[in-house]
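4.2 Preliminary Data

To establish feasibility before requesting continued support, the project team ran the inverse folding procedure on a target of 206 residues. The structure was first converted into the token representation described in Section 3, and no sequence information of any kind was made available to the design step. The complete token record follows.
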């Protein structure tokens, strides 16, 4: 009897106070897509970060006239032949090229897969012996903007001297000073006989 009365009271209470229904879920507000930056597999332009130290600015000088020489902070760096060819190819192409262009230039007689594998190996070894000399992305290779390349300096100065002609004005004294410091007499990598380089050597001579 007591149980029946209790049940009637619970039914009456439930009728007067129905159970609250869960609020309908609202659609989540749309958010802008996250922008994923292009992965950088190399080093920033003319910088290098060593383990346990802050980023250090480096002075890079690449000489191709009369022979290959690479200087980092004034020190001559020993670079393997493949690394030398990679840096020279970038310099001759105006500092920047796609990975595909460099792979095909340096390894034209192998499959594309093998050429790109060779390029990855060359970049890895170059990064160990001369960190920071090549900026690398998934698609492009580039020499640092702040790097000095004697081929560029010589070509630029030769054009300036030709534009001046036979008459040198006092205002051209800076140009003459530059001429004393730039290599205008050596050929482009004269001891190399790479097929891809022949056209660049011929254009530089003339």
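Position-by-position output of the design step:
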């Amino acid at each position: 009897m007591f149980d029946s009365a209790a049940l009637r009271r619970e039914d009456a209470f439930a009728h007067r106070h129905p159970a609250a229904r869960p609020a309908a879920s609202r659609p989540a507000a749309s958010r802008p897509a996250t922008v994923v930056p292009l992965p950088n597999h190399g080093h920033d332009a003319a910088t290098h970060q060593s383990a346990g130290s802050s980023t250090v600015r480096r002075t890079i000088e690449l000489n191709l006239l009369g022979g290959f020489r690479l200087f980092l902070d004034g020190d001559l760096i020993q670079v393997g032949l493949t690394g030398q060819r990679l840096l020279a190819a970038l310099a001759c192409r105006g500092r920047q090229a796609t990975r595909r262009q460099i792979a095909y230039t340096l390894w034209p007689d192998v499959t594309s897969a093998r050429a790109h594998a060779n390029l990855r190996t060359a970049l890895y070894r170059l990064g160990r012996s001369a960190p920071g000399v090549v900026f690398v992305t998934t698609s492009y290779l580039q020499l640092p903007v702040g790097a000095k390349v004697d081929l560029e300096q010589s070509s630029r100065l030769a054009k300036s001297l030709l534009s001046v002609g036979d008459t040198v004005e006092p205002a051209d004294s800076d140009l003459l000073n530059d001429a004393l410091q730039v290599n205008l007499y050596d050929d482009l990598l004269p001891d190399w006989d790479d097929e891809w380089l022949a056209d660049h050597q011929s254009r530089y001579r003339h």
